[in-house]
Amino acid sequence: MKTRLRREHFLDLRPFSASPAFARLWIGSTLAGLGGQLTIVAVMLHVYELTQDTFAVSMIAVAGLVPMVLAGLYGGMLADAFDRKTVALIAASVTWVSTAVLAGLAWGHLETVWWLYLLSVVNAAANSIVMATKSAITPRLLPRDLLPAAAALNGITVGVMVMAGPALAGILVAVAGYQWTYTIDVVLMLSLFLGLFTLPSIRPEGVIVKPGLESLKDGWTFLRRATNIRLQYLLDITAMTFGQPLALFPAIGALLLGGGPITTGVLTAAFAAGAFLSSLFSGPIGRVRHHGIGIQRSIQVYGLAILAFGAVLLAAALGVFAPADVGEQSANLALIAVAFVFLAVAGAADNVSAIYRSTMMQAAVPDAIRGRLQGIFVVVVAGGPRVGALYAGTLATLTTLWFPPLIGGLVIVTLVWLLVRANPRFRDYDALHPEP
Fold first, then answer.
1. Mean local confidence (pLDDT), 359-369
2. DSSP class of 176
3. DSSP secondary-structure letter at 205?
4. Which of 204, 335, 344, 374 could form a disulfide with 135 if both were Cys (CB 3.0 to 4.6 A apart)?
5. What is the pLDDT of residue 125?
6. Where is the protein situated, by its record's location annotation (predicted)?
């Protein structure tokens, strides 16, 4: 009995045995995502090296926002009109080519800030289509009762990606340079094609609407009625807008905590470490029925953790535990460790929220419209941090590095409480009777 109880607290691996196709896609996505994180962090460091400007780093995310939104929406329409396997393969090919071009420019020493921006935009747009399509595919590969377990496994993917990727990126950039970092991503991404090629044909079920204005209007009409789905979007946008300090990490590593690129990688990896651990012990999550309450509480914990991270940065600015001169060669190890813990808590809370939000999306939305709703979901998930990068970069430029996370965490806790309190239907959401 004790052994069984211990097992029920750990990650549920049944989706792998239930669907070998899901298992292959998961492995390919994990390896490709790891490579993608190498490039994301390397581009941030590359832009900061070329400009020495935190605002320029934040603009990487902002530049890709509109193309990513448009691609996510259109990609969702494509996923509801054509074979989802084909749509994902074409979009993944665009991502692979743009990364290969980035590596080629780096090897030829031809890279500029504008090239880094342009290729990041292409990557963001293509990836949003891949993500939307893969999310719409998952419910067709697994029974509904295994969707929370699949979402938790995707949390493991995020954990591996963002925990190992940024740390490796910091080390690779410091030791081998940008050329090798981008090239490794090109190689790792090949694994995604294996996962996609081995999928069966997956055409949408139900009434098919051709991509275009009518398809977009059809999706918007459904979303207007889907109050639970709409509110989870708003809650996630709130968390990511006011609680995403990623764009500040290069400057924090260079100016506040010390350690340079390695500190940037460590702080970024902290989010993933929390996501990984929360997925590893995600067994009880699948037994929770009230996903709305789960989303509310996990996002509020996220906000408190970001607020605490801001307090750590304030302590660093005041000289707490600081070495004689804080810079890239002299890291404030004590505060870096504390910051890592709070960011890990934030990552864990965000992952729990993501499990509930993903399960709600996949269980409550009909297959015929799932691609479009997943497209909007991807825009929210990927677009929120980009708006957050603008918020953090702009506010840090006008004030100081510790202020955006400190005030942002407080805003998250307050706004989430107000939004959920005003929507009792969301609090009453029951996973056994999913309603959008």
1. 78
2. T
3. P
4. 374
5. 84
6. Cell inner membrane
Instruction: Assess contact for 37 and 44: CB atoms under 8 A.
Output: no
Q: Dihedral of the CA atoms 323, 326, 328, 333 (nearest 10)? A: 50
Tens-digit pLDDT profile for residues 118-141: 888 888 888 888 887 888 888 888
Classified by CATH at the fold level, domain 19-206+216-427 comes out as Growth Hormone; Chain: A; (1.20.1250)
What is the DSSP annotation of 72-110? HHHHHHHHTTS-HHHHHHHHHHHHHHHHHHHHHHHHTT-
Distance (Å, whole) CA 370 – CA 132: 9
Residues forming a β-bridge with 327: 330
Distance CA 170, CA 168 (A): 5
The C-alpha R_g of the chain, in whole angstroms, comes to: 21
Nearest Cα to Cα of residue 182 among 97, 118, 63: 97
For residues 244 and 303, the answer to whether their CB atoms sit within 8 Å is no
The Cβ of residue 215 has, within 10 Å, a number of other Cβ atoms equal to 22
Give dist(CA 196, CA 279) in Å, integer.
24
Average pLDDT for 412-428? 88
Cα separation, 159 vs 416, in Å, equals: 25
| Average pLDDT score over the chain | 81
Write down the residue that tokens 């581009």 correspond to.
Answer: 43
Neighbours of 140 (CB within 10 A): 19
5 has a pLDDT exceeding 50:
no
Mean pLDDT across the stretch 61-71? 75
**Which residue, 66, 88, 92, is CA-closest to 79?**
88
**Residue range 264-306, pLDDT digits in tens:** 878 877 887 888 788 777 766 666 667 788 888 899 999 999 9
**What is the pLDDT confidence band of residue 74, given thresholds at 50, 70 and 90?**
confident
- Vertex 133: Cα angle to 220 and 67 (nearest 5): 65
Cα–Cα distance for residue pair 94/42, rounded to 1 Å: 19
Phi-psi group of 204: left, alpha or beta (phi > 0 → left; psi -120 to 50 → alpha; rest → beta): beta
Instruction: Write down the pTM of the prediction.
Output: 0.72
Q: Which amino acid is at 335?
A: L
Please state the three-class secondary structure of 302-364 as a single string. Answer: HHHHHHHHHHHHHHHHCCCCCCCCCECCECCHHHHHHHHHHHHHHHHHHHHHHHHHHHHHHHH
* First-last CA distance in the chain: 37
Asked whether the beta carbons of 22 and 142 are under 8 A apart, the reply is yes
Residue 95 in contact with residue 189, Cβ under 8 Å? yes
Domain ranges of the chain: 19-206+216-427
